[in-house]
Design brief:
This protein has six helices and eleven strands. With about 210 residues, the protein is of the alpha+beta class.
Length: about 210
């Protein structure tokens, strides 16, 4: 409540061990979902990469999930998690109005996987279930990191989430280590990139 909507903050959650968030349950979910509801990519990517340069995975989505410890990938089956989001309504709605697009993304990631430098078009909280991640967060309104043209493209619906990366940006980041039972609130359009630790990771973004 102290941070929403504009400030990043680390918080706690109690979803670790939930039966719907085991690897086998998530593999079964992926088998049931239509193809357009799933995104999966190789995990060994640079911090900055053009969308068209992201290579295709050689494994199926269920093979990726069941071998995630050695597959070198990440996968994001999408699902709506209304029960979790309902807990946030008393904080969200008085400040930013009705919650209009309720979405959840489960990220299943191999050790050392990188989510490239990007921003998200929604308010979001990343909840860590197993393994750990380091999220490097950058200031929202720093036009050195991304300029007014990127803002305009975003509002015109022409923006891909990945952002151009410059190594000189690195000193502007705040690195947050996220362990199981911890979560980070990420404001709209807050640039960030993510590195998975030495164990397979499951996290939930709502």
């Amino acid at each position: 409540a102290a941070a929403y909507p504009a400030m990043p903050i680390k918080v706690k959650h109690n979803l670790c061990g939930h039966p719907l968030l085991t690897l086998e349950a998530l593999a079964e979910l992926a088998e049931a979902l239509p193809e357009h509801e799933i995104e999966y990519n190789p995990g060994k990517l640079p911090i900055g990469i053009k969308p068209e340069d992201v290579p295709k995975s050689e494994l199926s989505v269920t093979e990726t999930i069941r071998t995630i410890g050695r597959a070198g990938s990440w996968v994001a089956p999408k699902e709506l998690l209304h029960s979790v989001l309902d807990e946030l309504r008393p904080i969200v709605e008085p400040r930013t109005g009705a919650m209009m697009q309720l979405e959840g993304f489960v990220f299943i990631s191999s050790p050392g996987a990188v989510t490239p430098f990007h921003f998200d078009p929604e308010h979001n909280i990343l909840l860590q279930m197993t393994g750990c991640k380091t999220m490097s967060l950058f200031p929202v309104e720093d036009e050195v990191i991304f300029n007014a043209k990127v803002h305009e493209q975003f509002h015109l619906g022409q923006h891909h989430r990945n952002l151009p990366w410059e190594a000189s940006h690195v000193y502007k980041a705040t690195a947050e280590l996220i362990d199981p039972g911890e979560a980070v609130h990420v404001p709209v359009k807050a640039p960030h990139w993510v590195l998975v630790g030495g164990m397979p990771s499951i996290s939930l973004s709502i």
